[in-house]
Amino acid sequence: MTAPTVLGTHIEVRGLTVRYKKRAALDGLDLDLDAGVHGLLGPNGAGKTTLMRVLATVAKPTSGRVALLGHDLSDQRALRVVRRRLGYLPQHFGYYPRFTVREFVEYFAWLKEMPGSTVPLAVDHAIERVGLADRADERLKRLSGGMLRRAGIAQAIVNSPDILLLDEPTAGLDPEQRVDFRQLLRSIGVDTCVLVATHLVEDVAAACSEVTLANGGRVVFRGTPDELAGHGDGAADGDSPIERGYTAVLRADRAR
Ligand SMILES: Nc1ncnc2c1ncn2[C@@H]1O[C@H](COP(=O)(O)OP(=O)(O)OP(=O)(O)O)[C@@H](O)[C@H]1O
After folding, report:
1. Which InterPro entries does the record cross-reference, listed alphabetically (predicted)?
2. Could you read off the pLDDT of 175-200 as tens digits, one per residue?
């Protein structure tokens, strides 16, 4: 199956606001992302998960405009087209514990309306890419937390999405798996727009071509991991250059 050509920007967000009662989880956020691996960093409550949920089309904006693959999400007909081209690993995902890994990934392939003839091969490939081939027929309830996370990543990539949204994908992965996972991200990011929300700045430094730092529902920094690290030159706290950059940018934003 060949992926359709992507016209325009993969992700285009303008003035995105999401309110929960009086609190703004996102507050006029602007963002443009194309192919590549993009890290999304920010402190607790910055709005990362809210942004991921809007981009995954499971939450609606209060105001503002979001276009994915050139389709405006306010257009109901476009939603179906876009959803086929998306992969999404939520921060917390539900599953039937009696499903095997293969059944679980297959189920998502059907939900994404993949042509039936392509499903078995795509499922096997996705399971292999996350290193679960030897567990493909194991029930989900028998997997460790990290393996379950990897099964979640497999369902997200089964349709070779044009946009892949991963909310804290490395939570629970052991160090060796995290190294493999970064390699997987880099290979997917060659022609896919991958957005990874995480607290692990070392994953961002190692795997991401670009990083977006959110605070208070807005973007406060956008650049390469090296550029973020550059903001930490001097006295800011942190154990690595990128941690120091992260801390320095947040402090400067809070002092505004
Ligand atoms: N369903 C909800 N109802 C009310 N407030 C919410 C809801 N979901 C999120 N919020 C609020 O919106 C803000 C942003 O939350 P969000 O989960 O998007 O942040 P985050 O950056 O993902 O945080 P974390 O790093 O802790 O996962 C927070 O103030 C949060 O309390």
Report:
1. AAA+_ATPase (IPR003593), ABC_transporter-like_ATP-bd (IPR003439), ABC_transporter-like_CS (IPR017871), P-loop_NTPase (IPR027417)
2. 888 888 888 899 899 889 999 999 99
**Distance (Å) of CA 178 to CA 74, 105, 119, 144, 168:** 36, 21, 27, 15, 12
**Residue 86 alpha carbon to ligand 1 centre in Å:** 22
Q: How many CA atoms lie within 13 A of 111 on its CB side?
A: 14
The string of DSSP codes covering 205-230 is: HHH-SEEEEEETTEEEEEE-HHHHHH
In 3D space, the residue among 144, 118, 125 whose CA is nearest the CA of residue 1 turns out to be 118
Q: What are phi and psi of 215, to 5 degrees?
A: -155, 135
| ipTM > 0.95, yes or no | yes
User: pTM surpassing 0.95?
Assistant: no
Closest atom of ligand 1 to 53 CA is: 18
Does the beta carbon of 50 sit less than 6 angstroms from any atom of ligand 1?
yes
Q: Tell me the backbone φ, ψ of residue 149, rounded to 5 degrees.
A: -60, -40
CB 222 within 8 A of CB 236: no
